[in-house]
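During the second half of the funding period, the structural biology subgroup turned its attention to how the target accommodates small molecules. The most pressing case was DLL, which had performed well in the primary screen but for which no bound structure existed. We therefore specified the complex as follows and requested a full 3D prediction, including the ligand pose.
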Amino acid sequence: MFDRKAQLLKPKELKRLQLLKLRKTVRHAYRNVPLVRRRFGEANVKPESIRTLEDVQKIPFTVKTDLRDNYPLGILAVPQTRLYCLHASSGTTGKPIIMAYTRGDLERWSRLMGRTFDVAGVRKGDIVQNMFGYGLFTGGLGFHYGARAVGATVIPTSTGNTKRQLMLMKDLRSSVAASTPSYMVYLCEASRVEGYEPKRDFSLKIGLFGAEPWSEEARKRIEDVFGLRAHDCYGMSELYGPGVGIECENRNGLHVWSDEFLVETINPDTGEVLEPGKEGELVFTMLSREAMPLLRYRTRDLSRVFEEECECGRYHPRIQRIKGRSDDMLIVGGVNVFPSQVEHVLMNIPSLGDQYQIIVSHRELAQLAVKAETSADKLNDPALLKEIQSDLFAVLGIRAEV
Ligand code: DLL
């Protein structure tokens, strides 16, 4: 078992570790991040006020707009020379939000991803076809690090190029597929169109899917077509990336690696903390992050936390599959899209009017379409169409039909 000791921590030891790390991280964030110091001041809280795990509730929330407002690196808690790597994710408007990692952060993230692979049954000798996007998105590299941590072979095919994807899947006998669930559902159909008989031609036995909500029906379809066992994995860029939660063999909720993340649920309207078991918005406190120690980060993801012991022997609490979001963020093929980003682009093009419509369709691959209004003489202007398309692409990172 990879990182066995951490995976099997008993509740008492977990709590002891959490408190130790929480106090250390709070001191670190308070000392080094002006925003944290200001917020603590406003709430009349000092690092010394955090004496028990429950005291986490005294800490003010951090939200996505805090990252946007401090673009690019205003909430760093270490000197920039200590950074090993940066990633980015869509913000609510034109600018992305930037994620920073020290060497220690990268090592911790790799270890979390190693555990994630291990829980799903991936071992040395497995061949991982990593169909998450490599680049600023945390999916590609996150899964890459995890495969390396457990000693598996990784094929960094990244997204797209379905024909080549399927050819390599067959010829290299990939045993593990990692991708967005929507792309894997698309491959169910595409592999038949390309003339493959999935169960005969491919060697997949394990699938790791995440970055967007998916249903039990999608799981069943993927498993039936490919004959693999599919695990849901959860994460977000601000919390390293993937690697926050993973389904074990029982697949009854996702274990959250709680020696690194303290999880709470709150009422998204009032901010009131809910008891375990009640549905609400997930809030995470990172317990060892050096570069960007986010405290009580509001995810906007709706779920439930349950702390009952799992038959797998792990005491890390579980969250239910993400049910939806409490804001208006859309996820199109794993890519996060805020309506406000689209609005931001359209409002910066003078010949467009104020009204617009965003349409997400789920035929084959998820698709985004944007309808905008303009004066009659501009209606069929190819230059305008091109301008809108390329501006949207620059901000969203995906193509939209306009
Ligand atoms: O999607 C990180 C990731 C990559 C997770 C690969 C899993 C696999 P972001 O782009 O920042 O990071 O998007 C984070 O995606 O707040 C959820 O709304 C959604 N999300 C992620 N995983 C799941 C999942 C990555 N398993 C946002 N089920 C999160 C439902 C998910 N929604």
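Two results from this model are relevant to the next phase. The two ends are 50 Å apart (CA to CA). The chain is about 35% helix and 25% strand.
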